[in-house]
Amino acid sequence: MPEDPAPTDGSDPSRGVYGISVVSDLLGTGVQNLRAYERAGLLTPDRTAGGTRLYSPDDVARLRRVQRLLAEGLNLVGVGRVLDLEDNLADAHEQLDRARDPQAPTSSS
DNA sequence: TTTCTAACA
DNA sequence: TGTTAGTA
What is the pTM of this model? Predict the structure, then answer.
């Protein structure tokens, strides 16, 4: 059975908590595939003290991209490369924006 | 829930 | 190579 719904306020997208069965249902894939993706280094979900995987909303979005890229014909290694580049690119954008106007509203205030 | 293993396309 | 299914 799935984990607790977790009373997340949505304040931390990289810290949401989903059980693997919930994520597998969301993506329409088996739990074994999610473990395979982790094994391939496509993502690294958090673990509870007991070793149960906890997927964040960020991880779910990442997994959606994984499925998309897999459907495009890439293998797991290729998906990992793309995800790495995309992650890197997003970070580069952040730094560029920050360098352009230091007082830019990052999120609030 | 976790892991591993076997089989299939 | 990736997915699926069954097992402990």
Answer: 0.83
Give the list of residues 6+ apart from residue A81 with CB closer than 8 angstroms, or none: none
A17 CA from C8 C1′ (Å): 28
Q: Is the pLDDT of residue A3 over 50?
A: no
Determine if strand B comes within 7 Å of the CB of A1. Answer: yes
Q: What pLDDT score does A13 carry? A: 80
Question: What is the fold, at CATH topology level, of the domain defined by A20-100?
Answer: Multidrug-efflux Transporter Regulator; Chain: A; Domain 2 (1.10.1660)
Nucleotides of B under 7 A from a protein CB: 1-5
